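Reviewers of the previous submission asked for a worked example of the structure-prediction workflow described in the proposal, so we include one complete record here. The input consisted solely of the amino acid sequence. No template or homolog information was supplied to the procedure at any stage.
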Amino acid sequence: SATKALATTALHRQTVIMLALRRFELEKGKLPAALDELIPQYLASVPKDPFDDAPMRWNATKQITYSVGTNLKDDGGKMDKYASQNQPDIGLLYWWAAPDPTMSTPK
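From that input alone, the workflow returned the following structure tokens.
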């Protein structure tokens, strides 16, 4: 379906952003507050959200990149499941994020 194709495109573009975020973090020792900080050294431009043609979003506090998804509304990266098209926003958690200390670790 068209929606699935747009969601897949969004996730592919977020993967490009993830790699740029990682390169930034490795060189600067921190993540950027905004995706614009990745330009021009890590990205030529911030990839567009295929749902609304605006730049893809980054929530630095939650450490997620996201798209507005099918409701075309920026919900601040609201989702219960990452990389799912059935969420208010469609996004990915920063792959190298520190583990949540409140979560138990498997033994």
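Residues 43 and 57 are 14 Å apart (CA to CA). We consider this example representative of the routine output the project will generate in years two and three.
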